[in-house]
């Protein structure tokens, strides 16, 4: 996506809600090629609120990925393996 | 347990069982722990829930077809264990019945009110636990769809199976969940001094 010129963009979106839903469909990898093509090429570069929403959605996803994934404590991983082995010998 | 009755029962040797457990189940342990922790919001409960889930997965291993989506299968067991065993004894009794929450957030009215005008610049300054706290604060069902989709990358169809809901509900629940998350983040942004966040 190229960087659009703000002067040529609509400052208001007539169907913000539907657009946001389409945006999420695209970012979730669930949109069809046509939906993607239409929205990204024909709408996003002309519509300021949707353009901003796009960057916001991307930023939130990145923030979630970097800040909200915690690894399991190694002790717990080892415990689970041990318990399964014990279970095995009991069955 | 219904999640174990859908595929025809497989027959594995002990060696095969071990191989499935180690090569198909264990690689997802970090994602599973994170899910357990976000659901219970308690280190000890998360540990127990994760342990129960893996033991259950082993016990019912012949309901799992080798080479199919182990991650989705495990997430579904964990989610069901949480609902059956942990949600009831949760320290924080849920204030509203879930159905009410969904009906409430599905009304058009609320959608119009919740149009959080959050800016990317405000997000860039959230270098602490803001996003994590915002996610944790969401109602379990909303938190869950964000974890499955945005953290774990499950497709809508997989989420529908994990959660036993139609794909349309996955989509609308995700949309609400993201609005609620943005609303939370915009509250934090305001506290951080962003006037129009
Ligand atoms: Zn628009
Ligand atoms: Zn549009």
From TrEMBL, chain B:
PANTHER family the record matches? ECF RNA POLYMERASE SIGMA FACTOR SIGR, RNA POLYMERASE ECF-TYPE SIGMA FACTO
> Which Pfam families does the UniProt entry name for this protein?
Sigma70_r2, Sigma70_r4_2
Protein name (record): RNA polymerase subunit sigma
The UniProt keyword set, sorted, is: Sigma factor, Transcription, Transcription regulation
The record's section on SUPFAM superfamilies has: Sigma2 domain of RNA polymerase sigma factors (SSF88946), Sigma3 and sigma4 domains of RNA polymerase sigma factors (SSF88659)
- Record keywords: Cytoplasm included? no
Q: Which residues form the RNA polymerase sigma factor 70 region 4 type domain?
A: 130-179
Show the GO MF annotations: DNA binding; sigma factor activity
What is one process in the GO biological process aspect for this record?
DNA-templated transcription initiation
| Superkingdom, natural source | Bacteria
Question: RNA polymerase sigma-70 region domain: which residues?
Answer: 28-91
Q: Which family does it belong to?
A: Belongs to the sigma-70 factor family. ECF subfamily.
Q: Which InterPro entries match?
A: RNA_pol_sigma-70-like, RNA_pol_sigma-70_dom, RNA_pol_sigma70_r2, RNA_pol_sigma70_r4_t2, RNA_pol_sigma_r2, RNA_pol_sigma_r3/r4-like, WH-like_DNA-bd_sf
